[in-house]
Amino acid sequence: MIAGRDADLAVTMLDVADPAQAQAADAYVMAGADGTPFHRTAWLRAIGQAMGHRPIMLAAVEPSGQIGGLLPLHHVKSRLFGNALVSTAFAVDGGILADRPGAIAALASAAERMANERGGLPVELRGGMAPGGDWNQREGEHVGFIRPIAADDEAELLAVPRKHRAELRKALANPALRVETGRSADLLRDHYRIYAESVRNLGTPVFPAGLFRAVLDQFGSDADLLVVREGDRPVSAVLTLYHGGKVMPYWGGGLADARRLRSNELMYYRLMGHGRARGMTLFDFGRSKTGSGQAAWKKSFGFEPRPLVYHDWSVGGVARDVSPSSAKYQRRIDLWKKLPLPVANMLGPMISRGLG
What we know:
Layout: E1 10-14, H1 19-31, H2 41-51, E2 54-61, E3 67-76, E4 84-87, E5 97-98, H3 101-117, E6 123-125, E7 136-148, H4 153-158, H5 162-172, E8 177-182, H6 185-202, H7 209-219, E9 223-230, E10 233-243, E11 246-254, H8 258-261, H9 263-277, E12 282-289, H10 293-300, E13 305-313, H11 330-337, H12 341-352
Parallel strand pairs: 4-6, 11-12
Antiparallel strand pairs: 1-2, 2-3, 3-4, 3-5, 6-13, 7-12, 7-13, 8-9, 9-10, 10-11
Helix pairs in contact: 2-7, 5-9
Organism: Sphingobium rhizovicinum
Pfam families: Acetyltransf_6
Protein name: FemAB family XrtA/PEP-CTERM system-associated protein
């Protein structure tokens, strides 16, 4: 038991490997409009299993025994990038999920104490409710993109601005392009091959293949893959999460030919239709760096950016620096882009585990 600030609440640590405790936590996440896939115990377990970072689920419990708030965390350990408590690791969202201010304060206080007990670690909250106190608020670094899924394919096409719609029509008219969805080992292999090359071209170390397998395994039918092929050759692919009526393409990419083929445009358009068929109502295009080319591309697809707010706390007020836009990483990024793909795929998983 971890003491909280609110006399009516007790903060405790749930065991995400225990089916009953995990079910209680997930029921709370699924019942609230602000819950995300990154609050779910499936995400905590997948990251712990594939990346080795210990999952921690703090729960603010009411006198009745009901959960009144959650804070999912990973204890990220890295020699290269430093150690931290992160909510949640390798995610674009997370943070405190609570019903009332007392639960927010109790969970924030518990995280601070846990960080101190573990050697003065910084704490990073990638979304969620503002913890207040002496937590630092970071706004303007990233933007998110969400809009409703249209009623049918034709309406979806018309929701795309005219210039980008013309590019999408070229892909739709290409008889060589076809789309496959599912969760098979073959699709997972094709997705990883494309994703690894895509992130190498951006100068980013690829995650281990086991991460994608773990996410598919833990989320079950709430995660799948979509691959675009030119004939038999896979050219674009994405791993998608489904949560609370939202389609959330999360890890996606394309080969160098994707731009010529407009296969990425086709991929996301077909994913919107796939989500509609699953009963989803919103398309969450994820986050991008403010002012980036990726952000501009999503806006040209008919999505308006909205600022994302993150929070961090540390004893000395100094947060980890793991941003790829940081000046100290630019030379390394430029060098990474030049690595042969087999070398990048061998070294990448060892480095990326520490990014969290």
